[in-house]
Amino acid sequence: MSETFFEVAGLNTWFFTRAGTFKSVRDVSFSLRRGEVLGIVGESGSGKSVTGMSIMGQVDEPGRIVSGSIQLDGEELTTLSFDQMRHYRGRRIAMVFQNPLMTLNPLMRIRDQMFEAISEHESMPQAEMQSRCIDALRSVGIPSPEDRLSAYPHELSGGMRQRVVIAIALLLNPDLIIADEPTTALDVTIQAQIIHQMRRQIDERGLGMIWITHDLATLSELADRILVMYAGAMMETGTTADIIGSPRHPYTRKLLESVPSLNVPGEKLRQIRGSMPSLLSLGAGCPFRDRCEFATEACAEIVPERVFSPTHRVWCHHPIEDER
């Protein structure tokens, strides 16, 4: 596998409001190689999407990146202006959102929206743009792509609209794609098809991908590595085999136990007791300690990083023994 081309180090993204400072992303670090999929998983409010928006340079006020580094092929992105980042969005880094109707303009045909995405960064004849758009739609499994170019978004099914959004993200062959829960609103069959298409695109094009989700089952099929987040902080990171087969953090274990398919038929579904703490009142200790069955007084102290292998790291005072 190729060398690391994308790296996030010590990222802190906070929101400064009248109620106080919401520390949505706290000291998050990870890297990515070409042809690799990194899954970021956690409950709602864990900081997954804010991490993605921070990478895109699209954190709106009152939020901002307080500290940390985001580098693409050695180029620092956090110091770029909004206009400078426009040259990276779409061309170098693309994002696929959960709801395609929020991404696609309902008043524009698919052709015009795809042409607009290309024209923002490149100048070429319309015939060449049309050929590129047809190839992009075909690559994500859309039948009769020539006909789909003339359609409006409302004339396509949910699965087709999401494929169009993915095709637009692939138009300029970016180095990195950030997918923010892109299959959540789709039925299981369409989810599987889109996951298969995305994995194929990554393998064929050698792109890097960050797949943001709350669904560990999806990541088990798609991701090479997984980062588990909770209340803005990293809990555990490792290969998919590490996280799914031998979770060491109590929170990761609880997430896996909450998957319905892993529960015994006829028994009550397992769930994580309590709720996530307010991001206004986070201290130096483990944010999961009030919901953790292994918590002790030590968990209120600064959380140590424990390294179990070159790929597997956990931030916990009381990691679980290996039960692989």
Notes on the structure:
The chain has a single domain, classed as P-loop containing nucleotide triphosphate hydrolases (Rossmann fold), CATH 3.40.50. Helices cover 30% and strands 24% of the residues. Helix 5 (126-139) packs across helix 7 (158-170) and helix 7 packs parallel to helix 8. The protein has 11 helices and 12 strands. The longest helix has 18 residues, at 188-205. The model has no long low-confidence stretch (mean pLDDT 90). A hairpin with a 2-residue loop joins strand 1 and strand 2 (20-33). The protein is an alpha/beta fold. The chain is globular, with a radius of gyration of 21 Å. The strands form 2 sheets. It has an 8-stranded mixed β-sheet, sandwiched between helices. Strands 2-1-4-5 form a 4-stranded antiparallel β-sheet, covered by helices on one side. Residues 8-256 form the ABC transporter domain. One of its GO terms (molecular function) is ATP hydrolysis activity. Keywords: ATP-binding, Cell membrane, Membrane, Nucleotide-binding, Transport. It is a peripheral membrane protein. One of its GO terms (cellular component) is plasma membrane.
| Strand percent estimate | 15-25%
Order of helices and strands: EEEHEEHEHHHHHEHEHEEHHEE
| Amino-to-carboxy terminus distance | 26 Å
Q: Quote the average pLDDT.
A: 90
The gyration radius over C-alpha positions equals 21 Å
Q: What's the CATH class label?
A: Alpha Beta
Layout: helices, strands, pairs:
Elements: E1 4-17, E2 20-33, E3 37-41, H1 48-56, E4 63-72, E5 75-76, H2 82-86, E6 93-96, H3 100-103, H4 110-119, H5 126-139, H6 145-148, H7 158-170, E7 176-180, H8 188-205, E8 208-213, H9 216-222, E9 225-230, E10 233-239, H10 240-245, H11 250-257, E11 305-307, E12 313-315
Parallel strand pairs: 3-8, 3-9, 6-7, 7-8
Antiparallel strand pairs: 1-2, 1-4, 4-5, 9-10, 10-12, 11-12
Helix pairs in contact: 4-5, 5-7, 7-8
Protein name: ABC transporter ATP-binding protein
Keywords: ATP-binding, Cell membrane, Membrane, Nucleotide-binding, Transport
GO cellular component, one term: plasma membrane
